[in-house]
Specification:
This protein is mainly α and about 190 residues long. It is built from 7 helices and no strands.
Amino acid sequence: LLLGVLLWAPWQALHGAPLMELSGDQDFQLFLQKNLEFTRKIREDVAALQRVVCDTLQLCKEDELQLMRQDLDIAQAPLVQCHKRTFQAETCFSQIRAGLHIYHGSLATIRDLLPGHAGLVESLQLDMANLSSNIQQQMEDLGLATVTYPTEKQDPLPTFSSNLHHQVGGFFILANFQRFLETAYRALRHLASL
């Protein structure tokens, strides 16, 4: 259903101008292709961390953990403007950047949970910061409004009452982030296909 909405939505952007006007813009197409690859790489790294959580912590199936999820305060970044019928490039790009900012901070929980994989988490955080920067630069180039996020950590990390809650919280951070990335990827891919 979500994919159907993505594929059939009347995609409009840039202060009401049809996005089709940008479809022939080589710089915009290059931006989309480059960042589709970037998003694909980030998705693969998140999937690798999910496999580590499954293999080392035996946390593999989301449906088995739903009861514990209710006790956890795990941020879930919305991307509703990236798949609604009222799609706007400006708000979609802004939501992608805001989500990357949220998950960038949340990944510190994963680094604490999997200290042996801190290098992969830090590499992932660097890629996320670069993707956010690329989107901000493209928005500025298109004359769209942008928000600059501070580099210092402002959002408090989730606190967990037990080691098990920490582990399950890490599982859900990665699961939410993977869903977020899939939606962002589909939105960028659709823009590239126009």
